[in-house]
Write a structure and sequence with these properties.
Radius of gyration: 20 Å
Structural class: mainly alpha
Number of helices: 9
Strand content: under 5%
Distance between the termini: 56 Å
CATH architecture of the largest domain: Up-down Bundle
Helix content: 55-70%
Shape: elongated
CATH topology of the largest domain: Butyryl-CoA Dehydrogenase, subunit A, domain 3
Largest sheet: none
Oligomer: single chain
Mean pLDDT: 77
Number of domains: 2
Low-confidence stretches: none
């Protein structure tokens, strides 16, 4: 355990005893980690600060549940809590807005053409357009599928890291990722089929 880990655990113990200064110190120390997770898994209609605040409310209400173990650092426990809170928020998004070709900016339309046609070279547009298009398509997937694609393909986490964050077993993650990628491609194909005249 590093000195930083020890300092953090001392703050945890003081926060458990009701020390407001220790609680503020914990928020300051953990905020960058929490907001990064929130930004990676933010539901379409959620505000990132609201979701971060919800995570900290859960963290402090469950602080007594954390057990100091060498195999599970406090930061890992916080990450898992944050990922699960984001997943719950994604599940709460009951109605997914319909995605239409005409709603896409020209650059995103070009990326969708590239995804479906598999040409030799990607469109000559900003990579941010591809990311925005992917996020729109991902928002159409069920929450668990969206989460596994985001963690595995966008954040490039290993299957083992995803298992630690989500509590899912490794075979489940592999199967879910395979099915989620297939659903994502099918969504893009269906989208194109339903909008055959909407082109660049």
């Amino acid at each position: 355990m590093t000195a930083t880990d020890g300092d953090l655990l001392r703050q945890v113990e003081r926060a458990r005893q009701g020390d407001p200064e220790a609680s503020r110190s914990l928020v300051d120390a953990l905020y960058p980690q929490v907001i990064r997770i929130v930004r990676s898994h933010l539901p379409v209609r959620a505000a990132e600060e609201d979701l971060a605040q919800e995570i900290f409310v859960k963290l402090f209400s469950r602080l007594d549940q954390y057990q100091v173990r060498s195999a599970v650092p406090f930061e890992h426990w916080v990450s898992r809590l944050a990922v699960r809170t984001c997943l719950d928020a994604l599940r709460a998004e009951r109605r997914r807005p319909e995605l239409r070709w005409s709603d896409l900016p020209e650059e995103q339309s070009a990326w969708l053409e590239f995804m479906l046609a598999d040409p030799a070279a990607p469109p000559d547009t900003a990579p941010a357009s591809a990311r925005e298009l992917l996020e729109k398509l991902l928002s159409q997937l069920p929450p668990d599928d969206r989460l596994v694609i985001s963690l595995l393909d966008l954040e490039e986490k290993s299957v083992k890291e995803i298992a630690q964050l989500t509590g899912w077993n490794i075979p489940l993650i592999k199967v879910r990722a395979f099915r989620a990628r297939r659903k994502l491609r099918k969504l893009a194909e269906t989208f194109k089929k339903e909008n055959p005249h909407e082109r660049l």
